[in-house]
């Protein structure tokens, strides 16, 4: 078994090489490099041990890549002198290697650069750490994995150290040589991981033949968001939630993602995937798992992921009458989108979990582009109070809201006495808005946190293969029917709340606007 997981008994001190594959692309410049910069600024990436390499086919120089990245880091007028100095030092850590994704030549050059860095840092044999971040279209994942396996595994240090015995020199790549010395090779792969159950499983098998599960980090950046990470703490470290978090008290749960812009500039990609594959199958479903799962045995990644898989496996097949799909007017005007596209840019659906805790409680997942606001939140709505003596309106139900973005907050809507002489009730809020309560405390970017986890070998916030499979099992039948045109999207106006049919579904599912 190759070394990929965290060996808790070993201090990881070897040189660290971070390779961003697809360095010329959008994700790399907007998210990956800025996240690395933030980690560098906070001292998590130390110049004495780290080198960062960009790799892509585009032929550019080191300086050209650095200049592209500079535009996404604090620079120019608004930046302080300190920041500007940090930016320059950080950029100096970055080198660029150009090559294709399916020939060994480029990857051998990459390996040479990594090895040179490791030698320069006097890295002990087997202790080098190599992280490969795939900021690439998934179509090239299998060939890139093969190239890394053939040319770039961390064992290559052996070849550079003179005086090793012959056996060590012959140790094959991918063998366990680094396991007891803190060394490893890990890969971070981006979504979309497949288009349906079959393609995802095929991709998993292809990658699984080359890397072991502890080496594979399937990233879902929603798992790196502050309030998503807070869900386990909220649920399992607070006595008052424990007895309430079930079908006896909760009427319905909504997990909502809204964006106030369309797919402009990404139409070609988006049209092949649609909102269910882009947002619901991954981001919203991961949030659902954390809201619905049982308490894990411990915080060990495998214990947490075991519980998430159980939730996914308990979801019963979606019913057509509990799905509303929408497409905003003007979506097909994008020249990269076919005129007759049926791809949904909006979806509301009810998921039902068949287990003791959640039987009968609708989990309403809703995601849409080009809506009236940008927001992601979880709304847990409680049942009406039995034997009500205040003649409360339905609208005064308790609701616990966790706003993931923007302006992280959680608040509990509750009924209180209206201040004054009369005995009347009013809906109010217990409000924990992070901006006020934790003023000045920086909230890390999701990517920043997750990349740090990959370096530390913590897979808690990454998607395991069986989790991914169970997630695709839920949506694949519906997705295939949408692809065949058997389930149609209704139109909605950009800048609106989405199709009215979605609000009607919400009402049928029992949600009450509070
Ligand atoms: P890009 O389209 O910008 O592609 C990244 C790089 O990959 C390009 O610069 C290009 O580099 C290379 N590339 C592009 N198309 C191909 C191709 N058909 N065959 C081989 N190489 C190709 O993608 P993004 O940076 O937007 O996304 C990268 C990954 O991250 C994708 O899996 C995407 O789904 C995912 N993602 C992206 C997000 C974003 O905000 N952009 C958000 C979440 C996930 P070169 O030609 O120089 O080799
Ligand atoms: C990405 C989707 O995964 O998440 C995009 O591909 C979407 O379509 C983005 O815009 C939203 O991320 P965030 O963190 O801005 O909510």
Task: Provide a descriptive summary of the structure in words.
Helices cover 35% and strands 19% of the residues. The protein has 15 helices and 15 strands. The chain has helices at 26-41, 62-70, 81-92, 104-120, 141-151, 157-160, 166-169, 197-208, 226-236, 267-292, 301-313, 434-437, 446-456, 465-483, 500-508; strands at residues 16-21, 50-56, 94-98, 129-134, 184-189, 216-218, 250-258, 323-328, 346-352, 362-368, 375-382, 399-405, 409-417, 425-433, 490-492. The strands form two sheets. A nine-stranded mixed sheet has the order 14-13-12-11-7-10-9-8-15, sandwiched between helices. The protein has a six-stranded parallel sheet with strand order 3-2-1-4-5-6, with helices on both faces. α1 (26-41) links the parallel β1 (16-21) and β2. The longest helix has 26 residues, at 267-292. The radius of gyration is 25 Å and the shape is globular. The relative contact order is 0.13. The model is unreliable at 156-179 (pLDDT under 50). Bound molecules: NADPH dihydro-nicotinamide-adenine-dinucleotide phosphate (NDP) and 6-O-phosphono-beta-D-glucopyranose. NADPH dihydro-nicotinamide-adenine-dinucleotide phosphate (NDP) binds next to α1.
